[in-house]
Design a protein that fits this description.
The complex is a heterodimer of chains A (68) and B (204). Chain A has 68 residues and is α+β, with helices and mostly antiparallel strands. Chain A contains two helices and four strands; from the N terminus they run E-E-H-E-E-H. The two termini of chain A are 24 Å apart. Chain B is elongated. In chain B, 29% of the residues are buried. Chain B is built from five helices and four strands. Classes of the chains: A alpha+beta (68), B alpha+beta (204).
Chain lengths: 68, 204
Amino acid sequence: VSAETSLHAGSSLRAPRARQVTLLDLLDRLLGGGVVIQGQITLAAADVDLVELDLGILVAAIDKAAGR
Amino acid sequence: MEWVESIARTHEGVLDALRKRTTVIPMRMCTVYRTEGGVREVLRREAEGLAETLEQLEGKTEWGVKVFFESDRARFSDPGTDAAGVDSTAGATGTAYMERRRQERDEREQLDHTVDQAAAEIHDRLSSVAADSLLNPPQRPEASGSRGEMVLNGVYLVADEVEHTFHQEAERLQERFASLGVELVTTGPWPPYNFLPGAMGAAW
C-alpha cells in the first residue's frame, strides 16, 4: 500500500516515518489523473457526477468533514 | 465523504496489488463499464495506444515529493535576532525598534527567496534521476495540515533500477536544506497517474 514518508535530517534513514497516504493525495491522483474515457462514467455521489465535481470543492468538503 | 474514501482506498488497493505484478495504466476513479463487452470494445479500439503506453511505463514507478516550508523551523545563522529581540547596543529608542523591524522583514524576504531556490533545486536534482517529472500546483495550506506552506508538489516517474538512487538523493536534499525550515515528504509507490501520454489523458 502506498505510504507517506518524512525524511528528517538526523533521523535514521533506515526507519523513516511511514503513514497511510492522505486522502487528499489519493484523490488528487484518482480524480485528477488516470485515463478518462468519455461517456463511460456513471457513478455519482449525492446525484452529482463525480467527474463533473470540481476537485477543489470536493477536497474542501473533505477538509471540513475531517475537522481540519 | 466516508463513501468517497472507501471507494478511493479500494481503487488504490486493487491497482497497488496489480502494480507489484505487472505494468498498470490507471484509469480515473469511478470509471465504470456496464458490460464486459464494453471493456472488450475499448481494449480493441485503443489497443495500439495502450500497448505503446505499457511499453513506455514498463519498469517505472511514480513517486511524489512534496516540500513544506515552516519559518519557525528555520535556524537563522545570526543569533543576534532571537525571539526576545533584546539588542543591548541599540537601546530602546523608536529608531532602533524600526530598524530591527526592517531587518526582520528583510531576513524573512531573503529566507523566502532562498527557500524558493531550494525548492527549484530539489526539483532539478530529483528530475535528473527520474525518467520524467512534472510539477503539480501546491495543495492548499489548510489541506496539508500543520507542516507549513507547500512550496513544491513534484511527481517523478522513476525507473526501478534507480529507485534507490532517487530516495538517496531525496535524503541528501533533506539534510542539506533542513536548516531553512524545509521538510521533504515522499509519497509512493504510485501507479503512474501523472505520466499517461497526452492521447490517453483527459481527452482520450
